[in-house]
Write a structure and sequence with these properties.
The chain is α+β, with helices and mostly antiparallel strands. It is built from 2 helices and 5 strands.
């Protein structure tokens, strides 16, 4: 498999980790879209949210618990942060390994809507 996030999990590609436990790893995004921009991923390869099976649902909880801790540690839990998951090509997903973006550390613009 040629997944960049799996290589980060394996340690063959370096990352600037901010969190890790048995199931989840989080690291700084190399192209940050906000002052705080962390990617949170399961260690298990799942292509996107549509690939999450019932046995994997605990991973979503693990990701959200990690997000809470990271937000506290990065100093954005009180001021506010955005937790985003893009699912599929049309959403803007570029790396097809389930991941969430934790964004904060500045006033974020409103999400565009039609």
């Amino acid at each position: 498999m040629d997944c960049i996030f799996c290589k980060i999990v394996e340690g063959t590609i370096p990352s600037k980790k901010v969190f890790e436990n048995e199931h989840v790893i989080a690291f700084h995004d190399i192209q940050p879209a906000a002052n705080v921009h962390t990617l949170i991923i399961p260690k298990k390869h799942i292509a996107d949210m549509n690939g999450v099976e019932e046995a994997d649902l605990f991973l979503i909880g693990e990701i959200h618990r990690a997000a809470q801790q990271i937000a506290r540690e990065q100093g954005v839990s009180e001021s506010g942060y955005r937790l985003v998951n893009n699912c599929g090509k049309d959403s803007g997903q570029v790396v097809f390994h389930l991941h969430y973006h934790l964004l904060g550390g500045e006033k974020l613009g409103a999400l565009n809507s039609k």
